[in-house]
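From the thread on structure requests for the teaching lab: each student submitted one protein with a one-line request. Submission from student K.M.:

"Model Sodium:proton symporter from Scytonema hofmannii PCC 7110, C-alpha cells only."
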Amino acid sequence: MNEIISILDKIAFLAFVVATMFGTGLKLTVQQIWQPLCNVRLVIFSLLTNFVLVPLFVYLLLQVIPLTEPVKDGLIVMALASGPPALPKLAQIVKGNLAFSTGLMMLLMFGTVFYMPLVLPLVLQGVEVNSWDIAKPLIFLMLTPLGIGLLIKAKYEAIAVNIQPIAFKISNLGLILGLAVRLIVHFNEIIILLKTGVIFVCAIFIVFSFTVGYLLGGPGIDTQRVLGVGTAQRNFAAALLIGTSNFDDPNVVSIIMVTSLLMMVIVMILGQKLPELDQVQTKEVEQMEIS
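Reply posted by the TA:
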C-alpha cells in the first residue's frame, strides 16, 4: 500500500511540474518572460527577500524559540531553498503576473544552485550540497518542458492554443492528487506538530515570507502577489534532496514535507482572499479621491 502511495505521489509531482512548465511555455514568449526581469529594482528586491531577509528571519526565530535540532535543521533548509517549481501555477491561482512568475522562478532557482552550497555548510555543520544535484531537476523537469512549450508557441501558435487547456488540466489534476496524497501520508506528522506547537512556528515562517515578498513586490499588484507567494512557497524539491541525502533523522524530512504542504495550502487560501482584499483597497482609494 505504501509503495502505491509513493508511486502516486511521484506521478502527481511529475505531472504537475512538467505540465505546468509546458503549459506556461505554450502561453508566453521569451520576451514576455524576460521583460519583467529588466526591472532592476524588482530583481534586487526579489533576491534580497529570498536570499537574505527570509533566511535571516528564520535563523533568528530559531534562536529565540526552543525546538529540537531536527526541526531546526529542516526549517533552515527550507528557508535557504528558494525558487518553487510551482510558482507559475501559484501565479495563476492568485491571479498574478504569469510572465514575471516564470522569470522569477528561473532566477531564484539558478540562485539557489549557487547559494545553498555556499551558505548551508556555514549554518549547519556536516552538510554537503552538490550544485549539479540541485540543477538536474531544474534542467530536465522544468527548463526542458518550458523550452518545448515556448518553441511550439513561437512556431505553431494555433497548435499551442489548442493544447494549452490539456496541459493545464493535467497540471491541476497533478496538484490536487499530490496535495491529497501528501495529506494522507503526513497526517500523523501534522497532528504531532499541532500538539507540539511546531506548526505555529511554520505558520510564522510562511506569514513573514509572504508579507515581506508582497510589500517589496512592486510596481503592480500582480507582481506583488507573485513575489509574495513565490517567497512564501520555498523550493521543496531542493530542500527534500538535501534533507534525504544529509540527515539520518527522519524528522528533518518530515518537517520539510509538512512545511511545504502547509505553504501550498496557505497560498491556495490566499489565492481566494487576495482579489477580495484588492477590491476593498481599490474602493477605499476611490472614496478617498472623491472626498
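TA comment: The chain is about 85% helix and 0% strand. The first helix runs from residue 2 to 27.
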